Amino acid sequence: MHEEPTRALLHALLELSASLCVADVSERLAEAALRLAGASGAELVLDACDASAGLRVTTGDTRGEPSIQLELRARGASFGRLCVFSDTPLEDAARSALRTLAAHGEIALSNARAHEAALIRADRDALTGLANHGHVWEALEREASRAHRYGRALAFVMIDVDRFKAFNDRHGHLAGDAALAQIATLVRERSRASDTAGRYGGDELALVLPETSAEGAIAVAEKIRDAAQARTLGATGGSLTVSAGVACAPTDGKTAADLVRVADARLYRAKAAGGNRVIA
């Protein structure tokens, strides 16, 4: 080992506990493994889970078969592995240090994943799984500022379920919740990774569409409208339609408040005209 073993290991463990970012902890763990073993390379692989995407971190030369592979586990289940690659056989002291490092790495990574999952939940609407009202506003304000600064396109779409109160009265609020969640899924599936899909309030959903023209936003809204009209909602066997209002910067305004006001007014016009339509 390149450093005095005990001191090197303690330093590595302190580094692991100093962050709650999964990517950062992963990089520190791989680099610490490389140092502790005096190895040529190290690789950390995290499996995807409900709240976190998969991740692979490599440092040094990771060609060939690993000299040691340590499984990472939490609550009895495997969630990844730490592999160390060495041109020479690893000493027993190095293997022992790596096992201790991996054990603490399991705890650090589990804590970081739990922290990031909590941050995600704080920005999510519990029923629909979309961004909540506050997160939608933050995204719209950020993108409106960016669009104004760089002269880029930005669209905002407000979506409302037609005659949702009547649906709730007929089928009950549980059926209404399930129907709204299904429509939210349609919205999420038709948005890009760069978009923000959220629940604005009640049965109103919203889309923040950066780098999107009026024509592009209308096309997205129409796809959502078509999909909602064609969808049978759960055990009720019924269906719901949606209406949408579209506003675009800079034509309809430069601020988040401008875009919300215009999109909301157009949504109201769409519903007043009978619903199941998009107005832009």
What does this entry look like structurally?
With 280 residues, the chain is of the alpha+beta class. It has two domains: 118 residues, GAF domain (Beta-Lactamase, 2-Layer Sandwich); 147 residues, Alpha-Beta Plaits (2-Layer Sandwich). The chain has eight helices and nine strands. The strands form two sheets. It has a five-stranded mixed β-sheet, sandwiched between helices. Strands 2-1-4-3 form a four-stranded antiparallel β-sheet, covered by helices on one side. Strand 3 and strand 4 form a beta hairpin. The termini are far apart.
Topology of this structure?
Elements: H1 5-16, H2 22-37, E1 41-46, E2 55-60, E3 68-74, E4 77-85, H3 92-122, H4 133-150, E5 154-161, H5 164-171, H6 173-189, E6 196-201, E7 204-210, H7 214-230, E8 242-249, H8 256-272, E9 278-279
Parallel strand pairs: 8-9
Antiparallel strand pairs: 1-2, 1-4, 3-4, 5-7, 5-8, 6-7
Helix pairs in contact: 1-2, 1-3, 2-3, 5-6
Q: What topology, given as strand order, has the largest sheet?
A: 6-7-5-8-9
Strand content: 15-25%
General shape: elongated
What is the number of domains?
Answer: 2
Order of helical and strand elements:
HHEEEEHHEHHEEHEHE
Alpha carbon gap, first and last residue: 66 Å
Rg over C-alpha atoms, rounded to the nearest angstrom: 25 Å
Judged by helices, strands and strand pairing, the structural class is alpha+beta
Classified in CATH, the superfamily of the largest domain is Reverse transcriptase/Diguanylate cyclase domain
Q: What average pLDDT do the residues reach?
A: 90
**Unreliable parts:** none
Q: What is the CATH third-level topology name of the largest domain?
A: Alpha-Beta Plaits
